[in-house]
């Protein structure tokens, strides 16, 4: 039978205490990640980050249009995106459902990112019970160096996104 000695107890406590990161190790990792992120922004410039924001807004708008179309087909109630303008540009939009009791917001309001210009052919982008769009809608989204167009086909309601 082996007796525990003070040396064995000390070794066991040290091994148990080394299972987690220390605060100093965590801070050094965060500093290194921060330096790499800053170097990436300096290398690619802020316009690249803004172009990514514009592309993300165009894709989100396209997905929300597809969601409005699907909800219209599923419920039989027209769904639409109501665009809010700031001058000629889209500032935000919200998805609504037309019901006999009045229009009801069915999703949160989405805001266009700063320095992203979005212009629309219509302020209401609506789908009927069969999933067709009530008009051929088009929204142009532009970042500093690139632009995208989100459009719908009137007869089918299909949503298309194209980089320009």
What is the helix fraction of residues, given as a range?
Answer: 25-40%
What is the count of β-strands?
9
> Biggest sheet, in brief?
5 strands, antiparallel
Q: Give me the number of helical elements.
A: 3
- Multimeric state: single chain
Termini, distance in Å?
Answer: 79 Å
The unreliable regions are none
Please tell me how large the radius of gyration is.
Answer: 26 Å
Overall shape: it is elongated
Q: What's a concise summary of this model?
A:
The chain is α+β, with helices and mostly antiparallel strands and 164 residues long.
Write the layout of secondary structure elements.
Blueprint: H1 6-17, H2 23-44, H3 46-75, E1 79-86, E2 89-97, E3 104-105, E4 110-111, E5 117-120, E6 124-127, E7 138-142, E8 147-152, E9 159-163
Antiparallel strand pairs: 1-2, 1-6, 2-3, 2-4, 5-7, 7-8, 8-9
Describe what this molecule looks like in 3D:
By secondary structure, the chain is of the alpha+beta class. The chain is built from 3 helices and 9 strands. The chain has helices at residues 6-17, 23-44, 46-75; strands at 79-86, 89-97, 104-105, 110-111, 117-120, 124-127, 138-142, 147-152, 159-163. The strands form 2 sheets. Strands 1, 2, 3, 4 and 6 form a 5-stranded antiparallel β-sheet that branches. It is elongated and about 85 Å long. The chain starts with 5 loop residues before the first helix and ends with a strand.
């Amino acid at each position: 039978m082996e007796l525990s000695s003070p040396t064995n107890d000390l070794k066991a406590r040290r091994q148990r205490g080394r299972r987690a990161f220390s605060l100093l190790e965590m801070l050094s990792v965060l500093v290194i990640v921060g330096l790499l992120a800053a170097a990436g922004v300096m290398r690619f410039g802020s316009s690249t980050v803004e172009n990514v924001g514009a592309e993300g807004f165009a894709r989100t708008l396209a997905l929300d249009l597809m969601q409005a179309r699907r909800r219209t087909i599923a419920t039989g109630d027209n769904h639409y995106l109501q665009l809010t303008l700031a001058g000629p540009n889209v500032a935000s939009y919200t998805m609504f459902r037309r019901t006999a009791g009045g229009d009801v917001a069915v999703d949160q309001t989405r805001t266009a990112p700063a320095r992203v210009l979005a212009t629309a052919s219509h302020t209401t982008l609506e789908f009927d019970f069969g999933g067709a769009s009530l008009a051929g809608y088009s929204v142009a989204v532009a970042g500093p160096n690139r632009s995208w167009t989100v459009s719908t086909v009137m007869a089918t309601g299909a949503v298309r996104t194209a980089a320009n």
